[in-house]
Amino acid sequence: MKITKEEIAHVAKLARLSLDEDSIALFTKQVGDILAYMDKLNHLNTEGVPPTSHAILIANAFREDEMRPSISNEAALSNAPAKEDGVFVVPKVL
Question: What is the CATH number assigned to the segment(s) 5-42?
Fold first, then answer.
């Protein structure tokens, strides 16, 4: 598929981009190269290849949740500048 300078200028106008002639020429070449590569990929035999949502397998790298001891309420509040009834006291934000 070949792309023209007019098509690049039209897309730039739709995107409200102001492009000079040098930029339009550059983007025309770059988009043309991308489309030529995509056309090459269209000629590959993909029969029998199942569709995928990701190119590589993705696995969850997180650990399992497990209960563990944590800091006590008293220790957490020990350096608080202001505390009341076991919680931090902070300025009101309106």
Answer: 1.10.20
pTM of the model: 0.50
Name residues whose C-beta falls within 8 Å of residue 5's C-beta, 6 or more positions apart in sequence.
Answer: 24, 25, 28
Q: How far apart are CA 4 and CA 28, in angstroms?
A: 6
Name the pLDDT band for 54 (thresholds 50, 70, 90).
confident
Domain boundaries, the chain: 5-42
Confidence band for 76, pLDDT divided at 50, 70 and 90: very high
